[in-house]
């Protein structure tokens, strides 16, 4: 009997120890948190607009990581905010890609979302906005009237779910064509300008190919996104680019098909790298920075990536090889002679800072989260992040070009000539509907799948969502 | 009193309960939940979904008509053959050779086992550099030998070989160590008697080592086949999204692709069920083929 009792006691201890792994410790913390919450709740909104009184750890997720040009700026800003407020930040930022988006959305679904996130304001955010897991700017302003008051509300994107504004923008983005001038010089090609046409582009590509270089740096089997966007845009106009076709047979649907066939034509002409279907985006980007490919269509965040590639230590700007950087330039994406001019680019303010409901409902974190977003979107910090892109500030500061490197200055000059910035239609065309034309791009360009069939399949999936 | 405590089995069951509960919560519940998920419409991981598929078994019908499912099944079966021949086969040869040397056994054991301790993701990145198109190790070597054009080791025709070589290489050491342990268990007296009878080294291997290693080789083959079904990380790092042209998908990578990349979680769940069914069937078949002998 004694043995049985001993057995039961031991088994009980084992179960308790297992339970303790996930239960007991947080309970103690939970009690402390509850005490803090009740104290803070008693204070009501008396702390509104002030920094957190006690040290709080905020979980923050952004896309300021990896090759993003603002990765170091974000680290510096976080360190400064931590020093100023005494709070700490658990930074779970990662490079912006489909895996990152899936991770964030899954975190929301499983209740492990961060307190603050810098995320897309298009269809990617629909699921957690529908679930009421983030707080609208208006709701925050009811308690903190100064929240995002330095922003022009007209430039803050409305949610596609309920028309409310949730994300406070920092830096905008643009997509344009980067150029390795060293390759152009070797091939005897002039730097493209504002009236660059697709015919001129193809003629230049032919010369570059004949000189032994890859004309276009793109991994069609990995990241065809930028070519997908501009190829479609070239067959439309800034006015209708954001309209998703109702069917493949209507005018917009046919424009999408024509865009896919335009990419196929460039592939058939041999203007993409030989390994474009098996290479990763990093590999083709390396080809571009190492002077083996001439053109790269990508986003404004790639300025930082190119600059890093010109530094002997990618983390240390002091190691920048200015001579190497001078070989790079950025220009407009060639137009097809239709309603889209070369200077009509894709861009806008597609991301912003959200405060989650979870942080908002925690009185300590609420104050810290508001403080964090206000700090990151302040008049002083926004220009540091925005650089050569747009911002939503009411009072745009005067840009001091002396603080920027050569490529950033070239980007600003290029942006000065832009005639329109239109959002990316792929930001609205989310989910498995993308698969036939994104992941299916290799099949389209190799002719294994007809472009019209792939577009039709994607639109069917979109319309059935 | 003393004999009673061995007859009474109740305490044993009490001690088994925590482990059972752990398995129930973290293995069996997710498993059955996954089966249910395969019948629902789920677009986001962690979401319960927006309703049932119409018809509820739609994903299983779709699998039959999905060419990539058949490609991934074919690749997985090839991977199994490669693991048996490449991993276990090479491990047997290495184990027999190492067993026949007097000095340096420990050195070779460590060297051959070493790849196991490196994470598959790190190995994937390593082999990415080795097989890199531009400035990759192999292409640089070929260039130094006079080759003027670069070879795309990840191109459609050769991608599967490029993917399977590192997987094979990684686990050879694992089976090698198991087989060396098996060889160590063979009594020295048998080799001594054979030597006195004038047996050559080859005859000792042929008539003593290999027959007495039979059960160990069978175990290795069962482990290799079931392990091949689970290979995921290294192929995914080297060939994300089944690149090129979706020709390198394995059942595991294709399931992951749908679950995390295409936001078709319910189809990923159905593929996971397929993997489990395949695993059970193949384990039975392999256990029957590689049946252990009683000595």
Written overview of the protein:
The complex is a heterodimer of chains A (465) and B (295). With 465 residues, chain A is an alpha/beta fold. Chain A has 2 domains: 51-172 and 349-397, Periplasmic binding protein-like II (D-Maltodextrin-Binding Protein, domain 2, 3-Layer(aba) Sandwich), CATH 3.40.190; 173-347 and 414-463, D-Maltodextrin-Binding Protein, domain 2 (3-Layer(aba) Sandwich), CATH 3.40.190. Chain A is built from 19 helices and 10 strands. In chain A, strand 1 (57-61), helix 3 (71-85) and strand 2 form a beta-alpha-beta unit. The N and C termini of chain A lie far apart (63 Å). The relative contact order of chain A is 0.16. Chain B has a single domain (56-289), classed as MetI-like (MetI-like fold, Orthogonal Bundle). Helices cover 72% and strands 0% of the residues of chain B. Chain B is built from 13 helices and no strands. In chain B, helix 4 (67-99) runs parallel beside helix 8, helix 8 (159-184) crosses helix 10 (201-230) and helix 10 (201-230) packs antiparallel against helix 13.
Summarize the structure.
The complex is a heterodimer of chains A (465) and B (295). Chain A is an alpha/beta fold and 465 residues long.
Which runs of chain A of at least 5 residues are low in confidence (pLDDT < 50)? 6-11, 13-52
| Helical run tally of chain A | 19
Total strand segments of chain A = 10
Q: Number of folding domains of chain A?
A: 2
Mean pLDDT across all residues of chain A, rounded? 87
Instruction: Using the CA coordinates, give the radius of gyration of chain B.
Output: 24 Å
Gap between N and C termini of chain A: 63 Å
CATH architecture label name of chain B: Orthogonal Bundle
Find the CATH topology of chain B: MetI-like fold
CATH topology of the largest domain in chain A: D-Maltodextrin-Binding Protein, domain 2
Strand pairing plus helix content of chain B: what structural class? mainly alpha
CATH architecture of the largest domain in chain A: 3-Layer(aba) Sandwich
Oligomer state of the chains in this structure: heterodimer
Helix content of chain B: over 70%
CATH superfamily of the largest domain in chain A: Periplasmic binding protein-like II
Provide the CATH top-level class of chain B: Mainly Alpha
Strand content of chain B: under 5%
Q: Tell me the series of helices and strands of chain A, N- to C-terminal.
A: HHEHEHEHHEHHEHHHEHHEEEHHHHEHH
